[in-house]
């Protein structure tokens, strides 16, 4: 099965190092990641290989997701793979300097593990992926311009 991917980009009026510091700090994820209620970070933060547990609240249900950081290249790229829930689902952030601002490109990739997963993915496609990115971008702008 071929991977399904979504790519979105936008601009935040803050320096690239501030944006990178914010998105890579697991304790601050609830500030910018839509739906995120809390995070249990890895015991020792080293960058690549760190595992964090993220708790989301959706429709009155608490959802527990475990991620592992697979791309950590300060201050340009950051990415993770989901270990639990949507196993194999990957999210990447690429940051680019744009004058006094930072261009953020988010890519979300998912590879179905079989025909059943592919069919479920087609019916329950991440319809709100653009809304998720837009909310994420708005939250980053709000946090970084305080």
Q: What does the model show?
A:
With 146 residues, this protein is α+β, with helices and mostly antiparallel strands. It has one domain (4-144): Alpha-D-Glucose-1,6-Bisphosphate, Chain A, domain 4 (2-Layer Sandwich), CATH 3.30.530. The protein is 26% helix and 42% strand. The protein has helices at 16-24, 29-32, 115-123, 129-144; strands at residues 4-12, 36-40, 51-58, 61-73, 77-84, 90-98, 101-110. A 7-stranded antiparallel beta sheet has the order 1-7-6-5-4-3-2. A hairpin with a 2-residue loop joins β6 and β7 (101-110).
What's this entry about, in short?
This protein has four helices and seven strands. The protein has helices at residues 16-24, 29-32, 115-123, 129-144; strands at 4-12, 36-40, 51-58, 61-73, 77-84, 90-98, 101-110.
Structural class comes to alpha+beta
The helical percent reads 25-40%
Beta-strand portion reads: 35-45%
Taking strands numbered 1, 2, ... along the chain, how are they ordered across the largest sheet?
Answer: 1-7-6-5-4-3-2
- How would a textbook summarize the main sheet? 7 strands, antiparallel
According to CATH, the homologous superfamily is START domain
**So what's the oligomer here?**
single chain
CATH architecture: 2-Layer Sandwich
| Radius of gyration based on Cα positions | 15 Å
Count helical runs.
Answer: 4
- Outline the low-pLDDT stretches: none
Mean pLDDT: 89
């Amino acid at each position: 099965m071929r991977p399904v991917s979504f790519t979105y980009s936008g601009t935040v009026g803050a320096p690239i190092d501030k944006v990178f510091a914010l998105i890579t700090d697991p304790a601050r994820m609830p500030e910018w990641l839509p739906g995120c209620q809390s995070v249990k970070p890895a015991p020792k933060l080293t960058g690549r290989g760190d595992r964090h547990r993220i708790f989301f609240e959706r429709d009155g249900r608490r959802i527990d997701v475990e991620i592992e950081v697979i791309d950590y290249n300060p201050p340009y790229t950051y990415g993770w793979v989901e270990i639990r829930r949507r196993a194999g689902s990957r999210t990447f952030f690429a940051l680019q300097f744009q004058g006094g601002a930072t261009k953020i490109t988010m890519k979300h990739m998912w590879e179905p593990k079989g025909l059943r997963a592919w069919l479920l993915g087609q019916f329950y496609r991440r319809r709100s992926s653009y809304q998720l990115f837009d909310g994420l971008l708005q939250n980053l702008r709000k946090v970084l311009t305080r």
